Amino acid sequence: MLLSILTVIPAMLMPLAAQSQLAKEKRQVDTSEPSYKYMASAGWSYTSLNQVNQSNNGLQGVDISLMRNFGRYFGVAVDGGHYQWTITRANPASYSVNLFLAGPEVHAPLYDRVSIFGRALLGAAHTGGAPIKPDESFAGGAGVGLEYKLNQRFGIRAYGDDIGSSFTVTPYEPGDSPHRRWNARAGVSVAFHF
Is 144 inside a domain boundary? Predict the structure, then answer.
């Protein structure tokens, strides 16, 4: 009996409105971003020129790339660059470098509009205007970069990588060249996702 009285007193003191309140249903917010299969970018880039003797200055030029995404974090990229213009006139001749590279890229969101990416590239390098025979070499390397999204389709990418090649020192040297050179490369480009 005492337990019944103690139970009835708090029930009478508690307003009925407090017993029947329900939380409003939250509206579902669509947080998914559109998924684009391709990304094209073009911009300014710089490369060092370590395969040419007495070159005191690197070259600047243009770099373009196209990437096909396979899922949210993985893609395959094709990259091409043409470098012909020196920053100063410290080189003894007018040289040029062309790079043709392709390889996998892994990318992930880092913070809000910023994402990070890493890539490994393989292909060929061509050096023009230098007494290197043959003037083409197998090339490859790895690099990392950041992308800042301006909106859903456009972004700005900044990257740096190290591309190795193996040009000969003696013209028409037979066999594989043991003279490996590593050229640092950096660039800034505008990316378009479609």
Answer: yes
